[in-house]
Every structure is written in structure tokens, then in C-alpha cells.
């Protein structure tokens, strides 16, 4: 096929001219404009959220020791790829089932709109299937990325990836359907705009279950109860990852408006951009100031996690708050991270990158904070949702982790952990020329 | 709330259907299309310019020594976050004041459009407040990033961040209002499309003032007048940063068209993309060839800065030039960087990343070059604007830097500088396993 | 000029109000909407594909040894910049010639639409020249990036850049015109949607010719026939590069729909997004499983190249396949990479980053796979196109490489290669504080 250009080719007759869709009796922009804009929103927000996979990989790769970086990269590109396949195979239609009792229905493979779908056959009040599928798919991958960070530096590759299969194909879609698939929590009035609970807490609960079953890294907690900090190997990379996640979050929250074809919708998308940015900034500044006060020295990893906690916090309701409200919500997220990272250590739950404080604790906060700005939300319903997602995801995850532990083992041998997973499991160092690791 | 999908849910009745905005007497796309497209332009350009914060962080993190990388990361995420808060608190409405004498008016907090704003209440001839605010906000953050690069490796964290508070909340918005807020320079006919002067020179002047007050790094200038090069620790990171900045510049210049809803406007946005890209390419190639000729070896850091100087140069007028004009403008930018980096060293002004040549000198050139392609611009007016921004920003910055120096000191102790700011100020190395730094 | 804001400035009268394009007798959105959307598609897809330049740089910079990283960065920013200039000077109008015999016509400089082009003067059935030029330009840069990876760690800078001049100014545009310029292959019915052959194989053939003429790196192939693996210096960077390329590919394939202003077109763009993502995921998972089976340990560099091979494979026909079809096409791409990387080594063709398996071999596969999903394509025609591009590009490249070898030499001295190109050719290390090189 020819790529048509302005010069007017001799071959122009061969070309499928774009405006043919506007033949005499075709619908005009008043009818198709919203569909086009919303489909574009999903494509654009989708590639932004896709890029969060790189953000998680860089954040986690920067926060682990250099001897485990190749493994962390392998897990992250692996989990994204598996999520993409599982969500097509079963996840998308499990989460958004056509025939649904409100609790549970397993769907089949995703089928896209036909090529060049006619306006008459398209969901003109929404968007194309392909864009919707792609947009929802990148969300489930984010959930899996959260788990990969918490369990770094000691979990075996394949059990982790098998957990991802179950998480992205079944667990996340089933619980997701309760809310976004029009299930019982949605009917009850639970409110979670872009997934503080549905995405982030779910990832956090799965990570928490895994961290408990897996146990802490060797040397993290001394016999005397002392917590030994294990510094990340590359804070420039971790910072890059945080900025990429922040970038992706504009798609994460903005795309969750699910429409861009009216004055109100596109304005709301932009309102969400502004609020999302504000919450992240507030989380970062709060962590910066708080670590200065508490430890006399600002802590960059806390600042990075503060920004992320701000983002998670605003995710349940990025639209309704004022900018000042977004600032408050994000700031509380920053406080939560700074205060709960040491708390997990006291419980000897070893979360390598701080994923549980950021995604679970700030996710709970964000879900509760909805009630301050959204008059349709009630504390009871929000807590019901939080508990429901927590119980289901934590218990289901525990079961899967225990099965994996029993069947194939989930933790590398002690010697392999000390030598680093890169050499023992993969035979390939990430920085073969630099590392003293 | 439910995420509506194509399958037609039982719960569909619950859903706020996107096309409701097109109820019987709602305005059609001929009326609302431009508003939607321009709001989208600001969102899209906004996230691209947001990502420049990561670009600056990586560029600067790559050009400092490894012992100062954590500090550079902390400064960059900190400054962006502070800029976001200050611009909301006072900056945006100071820069775009409603009741304005043309010189100075302090505004209050930014108030977004209401949720789901009706077409009748929206600025249909422009864009949503949220998108406009977000787009302008990411510009002010860029200004602050310029300062952070020049003053790296010796400035204390908190005085720097306090300077950012003043720069982003007051200095930049006040001088910005002269031009983009419809103030006296705008009325005089000064022309600066996307901010060669309003953004980049301003950052450069603030950096220059800081570099003079702060003094050079220990060991940079020998007692014999010899200039000791201090190589950056990670040129892959610096290259990544440059590419990210180049990417962001499509939003920086393209978004400054401020409209995308007509044939002329969207074509102009694309024209700006093409010209912006050409100027960057020309700046890079010029620096490549020139360093080959002058030093017999191409200098990567000069090539990176050459690309950036090309970008800064085209920023004052990315629309009017032909592609060949953009090439010439960018190429001169590349020449300026190669020639002025050594010049600053002769003056013993220590600019760690070359921010002053790139943003100030190329910014001045770009502002002058407007007269070659924009017949509405005059040399006198352009020079008036350049001088006005220079005097105001340089003097105001000097005053702030001197106050900070007097009140709390702006420079770390000699021993701390030698040991690196990461350990002395933050207690956290960026590359704890690698560095010999 | 003023930046108009919602507050209603005193200076508002100065402002070119966006909606002026909708004066009484101006065309409405039904007429101009498709032009606006397609121009936006090219701008958006264009910046995504632009960012692939960073992706290639990071991928290649991560896969070479640290002593050659500065050189790899210099080559990649240099080649992009040269491509941008050459494609303007001659390439674009050679590839999309107005007066054309179907085989060969050299065009002149690209001329953009005038500023603020009127609807009556614009290509309303397509998009603005600036957007089209920018979108096509970033493709040619990708071709050149492929060559840079394969020939890393031993080629001199300037001969490489001169090859890029010829490749991007003449070779790629001439052969590209056969298909996308409406030339003989297009008339014959050859089908290559986004460039598995036109872009990727061409880059691969040019790289193959170069690798043969240049010879392998010192120490890569032992006298006893043993292949010595030379590990990359930074797998985190290589992973980042792969994610960036994956991101950019949404623009690469999605933008190649060349239209976004109808229900069918925008749905097709989203369908392409979903298929592109699936093929990449399948390529990655396939390589993960296959290297586990073959070598007992998953190989991250193979997984990265597997994802890329999946992307190249789907590029010839990202629209027609179902998601399952995309999975199969991508999975075969992953298999190809895992099997052909060792094959090249047996032939002692030293391809540093695996560019030839990924871009050439998977590109051939993708071009053949078109026949399974596109009933307009025939095996004979597809093979004709593959062979035509192969013969032309390989022979022309060989000639250019031999001329460069004869005239100025293309390979650095043995001692310089051993010491690393960074110190010998550029005098600047990428990681001066870390490397044991």
C-alpha cells in the first residue's frame, strides 16, 4: 500500500482516502466526534500507562543491589508480557463480563472490533474495543509490577511469573469486576475512580502476602532486632523510574475519565492532570521536609516514594478535589510513606522498594479520602470495598504463594541469594564491568 | 463507578454516558471542537514538558560526579514539586492576572473549572483552565531546572530550594506577565513564541547570578589560571536526558501555538514540530563538526549541548522560519555553545552542565533571530525585552542569593564538597557499589 | 505575543483568537475534522517514534562495553541529526516524488505548508505537510539506528556518519519510494504496512553489509572456532532502551494507519496498538521460555531482543491479524531471534546487539506473514519485495562501505579498539569513575 502524500501521486487512485468514511450519508462529527476523541484518549493514556512498566523496572532496578538487577529487569519485562497475554486470554472479559451476576464470571478471549469498523457497528457512546482493551491491560500490568518490587532480591523467577499468571488472568479481573465491571461493589456505591484500591491496594495485598510467605532477605534483620539498611545500587535509575511513573500517571488517572469528547469531559481530563500532578508534588515535598525533620537529612528514596504515594492517594478521586484538596491528599500520602516504611521493618516484613507503604497504605488512604470530596461516597461503603479487596486478594495470594512454595519452592538457595540472583539464576550480570556487589 | 465496556452491562444504566453532553440543544463540534482540541493540546504538550523534568535530572545527574548524583536527583524532584505548588499558590495568577496594569500584580490561588463544566461556562475560544494551568506550570519548572544544573556540586539543598520558591512563585511569573500576561513588553510588540527569553534566558540569568555568588567548585580553576575539566560520571545518562529534553521540546514549542482546533492551527503545530526538530539536529551536527575541527576529536557533551542550544534558539520563533531557516538558527546555537563554554571558564564562572551557554546565550540569539522571519518583530524591541528580562532577573536573583548567603549560607563546607554532597548532606550515595568518586 | 488565558485580559484584543478559522463561511468539523485528527496522529506518532532514537541509544549503549559507550552515544545522536537534515534536503521528496516513473526520481528540499494555511489550501483528505514530513523523517532515523548497533565497538565515527548521509538521503528514500511513494512494488501489490521490510530489513541489510566488510571485533571469535561472548556493560540501560522502543512502536505502527478522523480509522489505530503490544509480549515470553529450555537459564538480552523481534514481525501487518494472530506472529519472531543469533556467530558475522536477527530476519518473517491475514497479499509478491529490497540495499551498502574503506578506512586501529573507542577516538569516557573497562 502507498503512503499518500501531499504531492498528488500518479498512484493516488490506489489509495484508500481517509475521508471516504464521510460519504454522503455518513454520520458527522457531532455523532462520531466523542467516539474518536475517547478512543484517542485510551490510546494516548494507554501508551503513557504502558510506559509505567519501564518506570517500575527502573525504580526497582535502581533500588536493588547490582547483583540482582538483571533478575529485576527479567521479571519486569516478563510480567508485563505475561499480563498482556493473560488479560487477552481471559482477564478482560472476566473483568468486564457481558452476562454477570455481580460477583464472578469467567470470560473468554478478547475479540477486537473488525478492521475499519463502520460507525453503525461501533460503540459510538464509548470507544473502540481495541483502545479499551489496551487501556485496561496496562492497568493490570501495573498491579503485577507492584508485587515484583516488594519481593525482589530473593524470589525465584518462575514461581513469581506463575503468580503473575494467576494475578493478571484471574485474581485482578475477578475482584476488578466487582467495581469496574458493574458488580456488587459498584452497585453498593463504592467509589474508586482510577484504582487506589482496585489496582494499587490489590498489588499491595498480593505483595504483602508474598513478603510474609517469602520472608526477609538474608541480613536485613539482625538477631538483635537491628534493621540493616540495604542501599539501592543506582539512585539515578530509581529517580528516572519515579519520573516515568509520574508521567504515566497522567494517563492512569486522566484516561480513567473514560471520555474526552465533550467540553465537560475534556475539561475533567485536564482537571485530573492538574490534581494528579499536585498530589505527587505534595507527597514529594512532604517526604522531603519530614525526613529532614525526623532524620536531619532528607532521604531521596523517601522523596521518590512520597511522590508515588501522593499519586496513589489521589488515584481514587483525582477529579472532584480542588488543587488544594489534591495537595492535602498527596501530602498525607507522603506522611504515610515516611511513617510506615519503618513500621514494616519492625514487623520484619521486608519490602525491598517500599511498595506496600506506597501502594497499599496510601491506596487505602486515597480510597477513604474520596468521602471528603465526593458526596456520593460514604465511609462505610469505602471501608467495605477496602476490606473486600483486602480479604480476597490477601487470602487468594496467600493460597497461591503457599501452593507455589509447596510445589516448586519460591525462594532461591541461601548461597544463591548471597551471590546474587543474576549469576545464580540467570548467569548474567547487569553491570559486569563495574560491580563490587 | 463502573468502567463502561462494549459488551453492554446490566449495570449500564448507572453509567454517565459520554454523549450526554450532546443532548438535543447542546452545541455541536463546530462550536466545541476547537476547545476540545486545544485542551487536548495543552494536556499532551503538558505531559511532554513535564517529562523534561526527568530530562534535566538525567542530563545533570550524568554531568556531575558520582558523589553528587543523589543530591542532583533530590534537587530536581524537589524543585519540580515546589514549582508545582508555588505556581498554584501564586504564580499562575500573577503571570496571567485578570486586573493588570501591565507591570505587576500578585495573583491568588489557581481555581480550576468546575467538574464537568458546561459548554456555556467554558472558554470556548481557548481551553480549560486545568489544561492551561498545567501547561504553564511545567514551563516554570523548566526555568528552575536550568538553575539547578549550573550550580551543581557545591550548593546546599535548602537555600537552593528556597531560591526555587521565590523564582517560581514570584520572579518568573512577574516577568512572564510582561509578555505572556499581556503586559508592557507584549504591548510594545516584543516577540517570544515559546520562551527563548521568557523561560530559558530567565533561567540562565538566575543561574549566572547564582554561579557568581557561589563561586566555582574546588579545583576547577588552578592558581596558574589553568582550567581543570571535571568529567561527568555518566554520559549515557546525560545522553538520555538530552533525548528526553528534545522530546519534551515538541510539547514546549508545539503547545505554545495555544490552539489546535483549526486547519491553520494544527498545521502550525506540526510546522513547529518539524522546525524544532531541525534546529536541534542542526545544533548537534554543528557542535559535532566544530569540535572535530577545533579539538580534533568530537566532544559528546558539546554535541548534547549543541542540540539543546539549537532547541533554545528556535524557541522564540519556531513557527515562521522555513526548515532551512530553522537549520540556520539551530546551527548558530550550536556554534554559540562551543565558543562560549570556554569563555565562561576564562571568566572563572563555573557552570557545571553548560546551562548558561545553552539557555542564556542561545536564548538571546534565538530572541534576536526572530527578526529574520517575523516581520512584526524589530531588533530594538527584541533587545529591549532581552535587556529587561536580563536586568530584572539578574538583579533580583543576585539579591535573593545574597540574602540566602547572609542568612543561612549557600555553599557546603570545603570538606563536604570534597567528600561529595551525597554523603555529607544526604548520607546516601547514588551508586554505593560502584563509585570510586 | 500574548498567551491568552481564561481571565479575560485587557490585552485580549491583540490575540489571534483560535476560532477565527470558523468564521461564517469557514468549513465545519465534518470537513476539517479528519485533517485535524490525522495531523495530530502524525505529530503524536512522530514524537513517539522520535523517542525511539533514545531507545536505540540506550539499548546499544547498554549492550556495548563501557569503553565504547561515549562513542555509541555520539553515533546515535549524530545519526538522528544527520537523518533529519538529509531527509529534509533530499530524502522526503525522493521518497514521495510528485513526478515519478515508479523506480527513481531525486527530489528537492521539503517545503512545509505556509504558516496558518487556509482550509482551502490544505490537503483536507490527508494531513499537513509538516506532520507528514516529521512522521516519515523519524522512520528513516530508525533505519540508521539499526546499523549503528550492529557495527558498534570497532567502526570509526566519521565513515559511519558518512554512510548515514547516503543511507538516509538516498538509499532508504529511493527504495522506500518503490512502495510507499507509489512505485513499482506498490503497483505490483506488495504489502508492508509500517515497514518490516521498507524500514527494518533495509536497516538490517545495510548492517549486514557493514558487518561483513568491517569484520568481527578482536577476540570475539577464537582461532579454535570458539565464540567468546562479550557481555554488555549495562543491562538496566538496555532494558530501558527496549521499553522505549516498545513505546515508540505504538507510534510507528499506529501512525502508519495514516488517518484518524473516522470511526474506522481511529478504531484501526487502536487495533494496531493492541496487536503491536501483543506481538511484543509474545516475542518476549517466547524467548524467555525458549532460552530456559535451551540453556537452562533465561537470557535477558534474548528476552529484550525477543520483544523487539515480535515488534518487527508485526510491523508489516499490524492491523489485519486477530490478537491471537498477533501473538503467533510475535512468538515466531521470538523464536527466530533465539535461533539465529548463534547462527550469525557460526558465520563469524559479529553483530554486537543482535540487530540483524531482530530487524532483518524477523522483518523478512513479518513480511511473509502478511499473507496469512491479508488476502490481498501473495507470497510471490511479498518475496519479490523482500528480495528487491535485499538486493538493492545490500549491494548499494556494500559499495558504499567498500568505497569508505578504500578512501578513509572504516575500522579503528587494533590498539584503539582494545583500549576502547571512547578514549582513542573521543578522549572521553562514559563512566570515568566506575569503569574497569
Distance between the termini of chain A: 53 Å
CATH superfamily name of chain A?
A: Ammonium transporter AmtB like domains
The CATH topology of chain A is given as Ammonium transporter fold
* Number of helices in the DSSP assignment of chain A: 14
Stretches with pLDDT under 50, minimum 5 residues of chain A: 4-24
- Supply the CATH class of chain A: Mainly Alpha
Q: What is the general shape of chain A?
A: globular
CA gyration radius of chain A, whole angstroms: 23 Å
Strand fraction of chain A: under 5%
The chain-level structural class of chain A is mainly alpha
List SSEs of chain A in N-to-C order: HHHHHHHHHHHHHH
Mean pLDDT of chain A: 93
Assembly type of the chains comes to homotrimer
Strand count, sense and barrel status of the largest sheet of chain A are: none
Q: State the share of residues found in helices of chain A, binned by percent.
A: 55-70%
Describe the structure.
The structure is a homotrimer of 437-residue chains. Chain A has 437 residues and is an all-alpha fold. Chain A has a single domain, classed as Ammonium transporter AmtB like domains (Ammonium transporter fold). Chain A is 65% helix and 0% strand. Chain A contains 14 helices and no strands. Chain A has helices at 29-63, 69-95, 129-150, 157-179, 184-188, 196-214, 235-254, 263-295, 300-314, 323-346, 355-373, 379-407, 414-419, 421-426. In chain A, helix 1 packs parallel to helix 3 (129-150), helix 3 packs across helix 4 (157-179) and helix 3 runs parallel beside helix 6. The first copy, chain A, starts with 28 loop residues before the first helix and ends in an 11-residue tail after the last helix. In chain A, 69% of the residues are buried. The model of chain A is unreliable at 4-24 (pLDDT under 50). Chains in contact: A-B, A-C, B-C. At the A-B interface, helix 1, helix 3, helix 7, helix 8 and helix 9 of A face helix 1, helix 2 and helix 3 of B.
Amino acid at each position: 500500500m502507498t503512503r499518500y502524500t501531499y504531492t498528488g501521486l500518479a498512484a493516488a487512485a490506489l489509495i484508500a482516502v481517509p475521508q471516504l468514511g464521510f460519504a454522503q450519508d455518513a454520520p458527522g462529527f457531532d455523532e462520531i466526534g466523542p467516539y474518536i476523541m475517547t478512543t484517542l484518549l485510551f490510546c494516548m493514556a494507554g501508551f503513557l500507562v504502558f510506559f509505567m512498566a519501564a518506570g517500575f523496572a527502573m525504580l526497582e532496578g535502581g533500588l536493588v543491589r547490582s547483583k540482582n538487577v538483571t533478575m529485576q529487569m527479567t521479571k519486569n519485562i516478563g510480567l508485563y508480557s505475561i499480563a498482556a497475554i493473560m488479560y487477552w486470554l481471559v482477564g478482560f472479559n472476566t473483568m468486564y463480563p457481558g452476562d454477570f451476576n455481580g460477583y464472578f464470571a469467567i470470560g473468554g478471549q478478547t475479540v477486537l472490533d473488525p478492521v475499519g469498523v463502520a460507525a453503525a457497528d461501533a460503540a459510538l457512546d464509548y470507544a473502540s474495543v481495541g483502545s479499551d482493551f489496551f487501556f485496561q491491560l496496562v492497568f493490570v500490568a501495573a498491579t503485577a509490577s507492584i508485587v515484583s518490587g516488594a519481593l525482589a532480591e530473593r524470589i525465584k523467577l518462575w514461581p513469581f511469573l506463575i503468580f503473575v499468571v494467576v494475578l493478571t488472568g484471574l485474581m485482578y479481573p475477578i475482584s476488578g469486576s466487582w467495581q469496574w465491571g458493574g458488580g456488587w461493589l459498584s452497585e453498593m456505591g463504592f467509589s474508586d475512580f482510577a484504582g487506589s484500591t482496585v489496582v494499587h491496594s490489590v498489588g499491595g495485598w498480593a505483595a504483602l502476602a508474598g513478603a510474609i510467605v517469602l520472608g526477609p532477605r538474608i541480613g536485613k534483620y539482625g538477631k538483635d532486632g537491628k534493621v540493616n539498611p540495604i542501599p539501592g545500587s543506582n539512585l539515578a535509575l530509581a529517580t528516572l523510574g519515579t519520573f516515568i511513573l509520574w508521567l504515566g500517571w497522567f494517563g492512569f488517572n486522566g484516561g480513567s475519565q473514560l471520555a474526552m469528547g465533550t467540553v465537560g469531559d475534556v475539561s475533567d481530563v485536564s482537571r485530573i492532570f492538574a490534581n494528579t500532578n499536585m498530589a505527587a508534588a505534595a507527597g514529594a515535598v512532604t517526604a522531603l521536609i519530614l525526613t529532614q525533620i525526623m532524620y536531619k537529612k532528607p532521604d531521596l528514596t523517601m522523596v521518590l516514594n512520597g511522590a508515588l504515594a501522593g499519586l496513589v492517594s489521589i488515584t481514587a478521586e483525582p477529579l472532584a478535589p480542588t488543587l488544594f484538596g489534591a495537595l492535602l491528599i498527596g501530602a498525607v500520602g507522603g506522611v504515610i510513606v515516611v511513617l510506615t516504611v519503618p513500621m514494616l521493618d519492625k514487623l520484619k516484613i521486608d519490602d525491598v522498594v517500599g511498595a506496600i507503604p506506597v501502594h497499599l497504605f496510601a491506596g487505602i488512604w486515597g480510597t477513604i479520602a474520596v468521602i471528603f470530596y465526593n458526596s456520593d461516597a460514604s465511609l462505610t461503603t469505602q471501608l467495605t470495598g477496602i476490606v473486600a479487596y483486602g480479604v480476597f486478594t490477601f487470602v487468594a495470594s496467600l493460597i497461591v504463594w503457599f501452593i507455589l512454595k509447596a510445589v516448586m519452592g519460591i525462594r532461591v538457595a541461601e548461597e544463591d541469594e548471597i551471590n546474587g540472583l543474576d549469576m545464580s539464576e540467570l548467569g548474567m550480570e547487569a553491570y559486569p564491568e563495574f560491580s563490587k556487589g
